C-alpha cells in the first residue's frame, strides 16, 4: 500500500520539530574572536556511503540523470546557494577558486572523493568565523557610539547581489546589519547595555557553534546539495536524523504542533500540524520566522543562528505549559517582530478526525442547509484494521458516518473542506473519492521505469450523489490534491478556493551503510492525464489568498520536477459543471465585489505584496518610526473598514486587534479565523448558485417536453 505525506525541502531538519525525545546538550566552550576554524576531514565511511547514494540516485530516481559535467555544475551552484544564499560571507576570490570544481565534482562523486566538498565547507566556516569575530569586536569597540540620524539604508534582498571583492566590503555590510539589529532592539524598548549584552551572547553562541561543527555536518551539507540536484524531496538522512525520523513516525507528538526548518540563520515555520496547539491558537503561520523562545515567565532567549534541534528543545515542554515565541511575521516587511504565546499540548490523533457542521445560506427568501465536513488529514488506523477491530478509524469510515448523519438532518448540499490538509494515506484518498463516484479509476502512478499503474475505486455504490463542493487552499497537498483532482475530472463537484500545493511525487526510504536515503521514485497523475506535480489543482473558482506562491508550494522549491501529462485513463466525465462555470463565476464576482471580508482580503494581499517589495530598510530611527507608523496605519485602516462594514466596534490601534486575537485563541471554542469563515460561506453561496442553475435547467427541459 502506498502512503504519502506533505514533506518539505529540508525534511531531515523539519522532522526534529515534532520530536518528544530529550536532546542532551553538552556545554559548548567559548571561542575567542579571531580564532581560526580548524579544518574538517572526510572519513573512509563517507567515501563508501557516497558510492551507495550515487548508485541509488542514478539507478532508482524518477528522473534518470547522468553523472556528468551538467550535474556537477548544478551541484556547485546549489551548494553555494545553500551555504551563502545572501552572499554575505564568501568573497569573490573564494568563489573563483571553487570554479576549479565546477566540472569535476562528478568524477569526485564517482570515486567517493569528498575532498573538494570539504575544502568548500571549511572555507565557508572560516569566513563565518571571521564575520562573527568582526561583529563581536565591532559591538564592544564601536557600537556604543553608533548614531541613527544618517541616511544609510540596508539591502535586505541579496540573493542576486555580486560577491564582495574585499573584506572591507563585507565589513561595511555587516556593520549595517549590526546597526539594524541594534535599531530594531532599541525601537522595541531595550536599553543600550541590554542590547549589547543580548547581541554579544547571540554572536558568541553562533561563533561557538561554528567551531563545534563536525565532519558529518560538512558531509550532510554537500550530499544534500547533490540530492537536491535531482529534486527537492530527495534527501540524505545522517544517522542522527535517521533516528529523529523514526521517532517522528511513532506519531507521539507533543509541543506546539509546528513543522520547522532552518533557513539561513533563522528557524522558519513550514506548516502547522492539524488540530495542534499552534493551529488552534491561530497566531503562528507558515513562513513566519522564530527568532526568540521563552517560557511563561522569564526572558525571551535569542535563538538566531541556533541549530534547529536546539531551538526545538526550548520550544518543547510539559503539557499545559506556555511557550512564548518572538517571531518575524511572513506578512510583514521582515524587520518588526512580535511576541506570541502558545499553550503546549499533545497532538491528539482523534482531534485530526473529520468533523461535520451545518451552515445556513440565505438565497432571497429561501434558506438552504449546507453540510460541511472538515478533513484535516487523510488518516487510517493500520493496526486496528490488521487486527480486524470493528471500530478502527479511517477517513472514509468516519466521513461515511458523518454524511449519513447530515443526510438525516436534511442538508441541501455538501462541502468537503480540505484547506490546510497536507495529505496522508493514498488509499484513503481513493476510497473517499469512491463515496461520490461510481466504480472507476481515481489516480495514476508512473514509476521510475515508466510503468503506469491505474489505482481505481472498486466499489460501484455511491454514498452521496447530491450537490458537492470541495474547498482547497495552497496548503492542500498530496492526497488532498488526488481527491480534489478526481472530483474535478469526473465533473462530480465544484472545486473552489486557492491553487493547491503541487506535491505530486512519491518517495521511499532506502537504508545506507550509515543513515538513510529518501528518494523520489514515482509521480502522480490525474485520470485526465495531468500531473498534480508543480501545478497542483487549479480551482474552478479562485478565491483571493494571502499565501505567497513564491514562498509556499512546490513551485517555490528549486529543482522541483516539472508538470507534465500522460495518456488519460478510461473514465466517464459529467460535463454539466463545466457548462455552468461562466455563470457561477459571474455571480461570484458580483457577490464578493462589495463583500467586506473579500475586499479586506484583496486589500490586505496588496499591502503584504507592497511590504515584501521593500528590499531596503532605513537605518535612520526617525525614518524607521515613520515607515512603521505608516504601515500600521494602513493595516488599521483596512481592518476598521472591514469592521465598519460589518457593524463591529472599531479599533484605536493595530495592537488592539492582536490583543483580541490572543484572547480569542484562549477560548475553548476552536473556530477558524474570520476570513476563513468568509471563504466557507462564499463556497456555500456558490453551491447554492449551482443548485439554482441546475433547477432552472431541469425546469426548462420539462417545459420543452
From TrEMBL:
Protein name, per record: Carboxy terminal-processing peptidase
Annotated signal sequence range: 1-26
Domain of life assignment: Bacteria
Composition skew (Basic and acidic residues), residue ranges: 621-642, 664-674
Family: Belongs to the peptidase S41A family.
Source taxonomy: Bacteria, Pseudomonadati, Pseudomonadota, Gammaproteobacteria, Oceanospirillales
Cited SUPFAM superfamilies: ClpP/crotonase (SSF52096), PDZ domain-like (SSF50156)
InterPro entries given in the database record: ClpP/crotonase-like_dom_sf, PDZ, PDZ_sf, Peptidase_S41A, Tail-specific_protease, Tail_Prtase_C, TSP_N
Segments of skewed composition (Acidic residues): 654-663
UniProt KW keywords: Hydrolase, Protease, Serine protease, Signal
PANTHER family linked to this entry: CARBOXYL-TERMINAL-PROCESSING PEPTIDASE 3, CHLOROPLASTIC, TAIL-SPECIFIC PROTEASE
Region called Disordered, residue ranges: 620-678
PDZ domain segment(s): 246-316
Keyword Transferase: no
Amino acid at each position: 500500500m502506498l502512503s504519502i505525506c506533505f514533506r518539505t525541502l529540508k525534511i531531515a531538519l523539519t522532522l526534529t520539530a515534532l520530536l518528544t525525545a530529550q536532546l542532551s546538550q553538552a556545554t559548548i566552550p567559548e571561542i575567542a574572536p579571531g580564532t581560526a576554524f580548524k579544518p574538517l576531514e572526510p572519513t573512509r565511511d563517507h567515501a563508501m556511503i557516497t558510492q551507495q547514494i550515487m548508485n541509488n540516485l542514478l539507478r532508482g530516481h524518477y528522473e534518470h540523470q547522468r553523472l556528468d559535467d551538467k550535474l556537477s555544475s548544478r551541484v556547485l551552484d546549489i551548494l553555494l546557494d545553500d551555504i551563502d544564499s545572501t552572499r554575505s560571507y564568501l568573497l569573490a576570490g573564494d568563489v573563483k577558486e571553487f570554479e576549479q570544481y565546477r566540472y569535476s565534482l562528478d568524477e569526485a562523486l564517482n570515486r567517493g572523493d569528498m575532498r573538494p566538498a570539504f575544502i568548500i565547507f571549511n572555507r565557508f566556516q572560516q569566513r563565518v568565523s571571521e564575520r562573527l569575530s568582526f561583529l563581536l569586536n565591532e559591538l564592544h569597540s564601536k557600537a556604543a557610539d553608533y548614531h541613527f540620524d544618517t541616511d544609510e539604508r540596508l539591502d535586505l534582498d541579496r540573493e542576486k547581489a555580486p560577491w564582495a571583492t574585499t573584506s572591507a566590503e563585507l565589513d561595511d555590510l555587516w556593520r549595517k546589519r549590526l546597526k539594524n539589529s541594534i535599531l530594531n532592539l532599541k525601537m522595541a524598548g531595550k536599553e543600550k547595555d541590554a542590547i549589547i549584552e543580548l547581541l554579544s551572547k547571540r554572536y558568541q553562541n553562533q561563533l561557538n557553534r561554528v567551531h563545534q561543527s563536525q565532519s558529518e555536518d560538512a558531509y550532510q551539507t554537500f550530499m544534500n546539495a547533490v540530492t537536491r540536484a535531482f529534486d527537492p524531496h530527495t534527501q540524505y538522512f545522517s544517522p542522527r536524523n535517521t533516528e529523529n525520523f523514526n521517532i517522528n513516525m511513532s506519531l507521539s507528538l507533543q509541543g506546539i504542533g509546528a513543522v520547522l526548518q532552518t533557513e539561513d540563520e533563522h528557524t522558519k515555520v513550514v506548516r502547522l500540524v492539524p488540530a495542534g496547539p499552534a493551529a488552534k491558537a491561530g497566531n503562528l503561520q507558515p513562513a513566519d520566522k522564530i527568532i526568540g523562545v521563552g517560557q511563561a515567565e522569564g526572558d525571551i532567549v535569542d535563538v538566531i543562528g541556533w541549530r534547529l534541534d536546539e531551538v526545538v528543545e526550548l520550544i518543547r515542554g510539559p503539557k499545559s505549559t506556555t511557550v512564548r515565541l518572538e517571531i518575524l511575521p511572513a506578512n510583514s516587511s521582515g524587520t518588526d517582530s512580535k511576541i506570541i504565546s502558545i499553550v503546549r499540548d499533545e497532538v491528539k490523533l482523534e482531534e485530526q478526525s473529520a468533523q461535520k457542521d451545518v451552515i445556513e445560506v440565505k438565497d432571497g427568501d429561501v434558506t438552504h442547509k449546507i453540510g460541511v465536513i472538515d478533513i484535516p488529514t487523510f488518516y487510517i488506523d493500520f493496526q486496528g484494521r490488521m487486527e480486524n477491530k470493528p471500530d478502527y478509524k479511517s477517513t472514509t469510515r468516519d466521513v461515511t458516518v458523518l454524511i449519513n448523519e447530515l443526510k438525516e438532518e436534511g442538508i441541501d448540499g455538501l462541502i468537503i473542506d480540505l484547506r490546510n490538509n497536507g495529505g496522508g494515506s493514498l488509499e484513503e484518498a481513493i476510497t473517499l473519492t469512491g463515496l461520490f463516484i461510481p466504480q472507476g479509476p481515481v489516480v495514476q502512478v508512473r514509476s521510475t521505469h515508466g510503468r503506469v499503474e491505474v489505482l481505481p475505486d472498486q466499489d460501484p455504490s455511491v454514498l452521496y450523489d447530491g450537490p458537492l463542493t470541495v474547498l482547497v487552499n495552497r496548503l492542500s497537498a498530496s492526497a488532498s490534491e488526488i481527491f480534489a483532482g478526481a472530483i474535478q475530472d469526473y465533473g462530480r463537484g465544484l472545486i473552489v478556493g486557492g491553487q493547491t500545493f503541487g506535491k505530486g511525487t512519491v518517495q521511499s526510504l532506502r537504508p545506507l551503510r550509515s543513515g538513510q536515503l529518501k528518494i523520489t521514485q514515482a509521480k502522480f497523475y490525474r485520470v485526465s492525464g495531468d500531473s498534480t506535480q508543480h501545478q497542483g489543482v487549479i480551482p474552478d473558482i479562485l478565491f483571493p489568498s494571502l499565501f505567497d506562491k513564491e514562498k509556499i508550494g512546490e513551485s517555490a522549491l528549486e529543482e522541483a520536477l516539472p508538470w507534465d501529462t500522460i495518456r488519460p485513463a478510461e473514465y466517464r466525465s459529467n460535463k454539466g459543471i463545466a457548462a455552468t462555470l461562466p455563470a457561477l463565476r459571474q455571480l461570484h464576482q458580483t457577490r464578493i465585489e462589495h463583500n467586506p471580508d473579500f475586499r479586506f482580503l484583496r486589500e490586505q494581499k496588496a499591502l503584504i505584496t507592497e511590504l515584501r517589495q521593500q528590499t531596503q530598510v532605513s537605518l535612520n530611527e526617525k525614518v524607521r518610526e515613520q515607515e512603521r507608523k505608516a504601515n500600521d496605519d494602513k493595516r488599521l485602516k483596512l481592518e476598521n473598514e472591514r469592521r465598519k462594514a460589518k457593524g463591529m466596534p472599531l479599533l484605536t490601534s493595530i495592537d488592539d486587534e492582536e490583543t483580541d486575537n490572543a484572547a480569542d485563541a484562549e477560548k475553548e471554542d476552536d473556530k477558524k479565523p474570520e476570513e476563513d469563515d468568509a471563504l466557507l460561506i462564499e463556497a456555500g453561496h456558490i453551491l447554492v448558485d449551482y443548485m439554482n442553475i441546475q433547477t432552472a435547467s431541469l425546469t426548462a427541459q420539462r417545459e420543452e417536453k
